[in-house]
Amino acid sequence: MTESDRVSRMSRDEFIALQNERLPRAVAYAYERVPFYRQAFDDIGLTPGDIRSLDDLHRIPFTYKSDIQAAFPYGLCAVEPNQIARVHSSSGSTGNPISTCYTAKDMDDWAVCMARNLEVAGVTPDDVCQIAFRYTLFTGAFGHHLGAERLGATVIPTSSGLTERQIQVMQAFNTTVLHCTPSYALVIAEKAEEMGLGPDDIPLRIGLHGAEPTSAGLRDELQARLGYRVARDYGLTELGGPGVSVECEAQDGYHINEDYFYPEIVDPTSGEPLPEGEIGEIVFTTLVKEGNPVLRYRTRDLAGLTRETCSCGRTLARHGLILGRTDDMLIYGGVNFFPSQVEAVLTGFAELAPHYLIRLSGDGRRESVHVHVEPQHDWWVSCSDGGAGLCELVQGRLRDQVGFRMKVEIAEPFSLERSEGKTKRVFDER
Ligand code: ADP
Ligand code: ZN
Q1: What is the pTM of this model?
Q2: Residues 354 and 295 in one domain
Q3: Among the four 4, 93, 296, 416, which has the fewest Cβ within 10 Å?
Q4: Ligand 1 atom index nearest CA of 232
Q5: Starting at the edge strand that comes first in sequence, how are the strands of the sheet with 280-286 ordered?
C-alpha cells in the first residue's frame, strides 16, 4: 500500500486528529506572517490561540476572491521573495488576475497531492500521460505534469493545440491518459473522427479533465467518443491549482485531499455552515501551505459534501459535481439559473452536439435569452425542417428546467467556436 493509499483510507478519527493538529499551526503561521490575516483577527479581537481545533474554525473571518485580487501579486504571501520557488497566475476567466506562489516544500506537496489524485483516478506508473493543458502561467499543465512525474508515469508534455499532432502523438507513444480541459477533449474527439479514427483506434483509457465544469451528459459523450473513462478533477489558483480533489472510478463525487485542504460548505448568502449533504458554497482552509496560505477561502463554487466512505473504499471526504459558481448565476426576469442547467438539457438530446452558447440581451425593460445550439452533423444532413421541430422540443425542455422561455436557435454543424482551454459560453449583453 502506498502512503497516499494509506491516507486515502484513514479512519474519520485519524483525519480529525490530523486536522486538529494542523489547523492551529496553520492559523498561527498566517497570523504571524501575513499582515492581512493579522489585521482580520485583530479587528474582531480574535487571537490565533483561540483557534484550538476544528470546532473553532467558524470564528475565523472568510477570505474572499476580492481580497486576493487586491493583494496581487504578493500581498498575501507569507515568505521572503527569495523563498519563492514558483509563481502561477489565474486564467482570469472572471475579473482581475490573481496569483499564487509556492515554496520548495509547497512544490513537493503539490506533487504529492497531484500524484495522489492521479492514483485515485486510476492512473498507475505504467501509464503514459499526455498533458494537453496549455503550459503557461495557468496552473493546469504544470500541476498535472508534476503529479504524473511523481507517480512514476511517462509524461508527454504536448501542451494544447495542433490537434492532429496530438492524436498522432497519442498513437505513436501509446498514450493511455489524456490530461486537458473537457472542452479540448471534445475538440480532440472531433478531430479524431475527422481523421477517420474510432474509439478503438485510440489507446486512451482515462481522461483527466478539469478547470471547468463537465456535465454528466458531456462526460458520457466524451467516454463514448474517445473510448475511455473520464475522471474529473478540481482545483483553483487560490489554493495552488489542481490537486484539491478528483473523481475515483466510482464517479460518485470528488475525493478531497483533506489533509492539505480542509473543506466546509456554507450558505452562499449568510455564510453559515451547512449540514453535510446540503448544497452550498465550498470554503477551503489550507492546512500546510507556506507560500500563500489561505484561511476559510470562499471559492464561490457550489456543491455538496459527504464524509461517508466511498464505494471505492476511500474515506477522503467528497464534494459533489460543481453545479456552478455563485458568480456564474444568471438572473433573468427575476429568475435565477445556471448555465449548467442549460447544458444538462442540451446534452439530453442525441441530435445536438455538446456545443452551445447563451446570449442575454435587452435594455432592462425587454430582455431575451437566446440559446445557440449546434446539431450533430449526421442528423443535420437528414433533417428536413431546418431543425424547427427540434428547436421547439428543446425550448419546451428548457422551459421546464428553468421556468421561463428561451429562444433556441440552431447553428450550422461545426460553426460554434471551439476552445483549447476553458470555453466561454455565456455572453451577457444587457
Ligand atoms: P479562473 O477560471 O477563475 O481564472 P482558475 O483557473 O483558478 O481561475 O479556475 C478555477 C475555477 O475553475 C474553479 O473555482 C471552478 O470554478 C472551475 N473548475 C475547476 N475545476 C472544475 C471542475 N472539475 N468542475 C467545475 N468547475 C471547475
Ligand atoms: Zn471513491
Answers
A1: 0.93
A2: no
A3: 93
A4: 23
A5: 261-266, 280-286, 297-303, 324-325
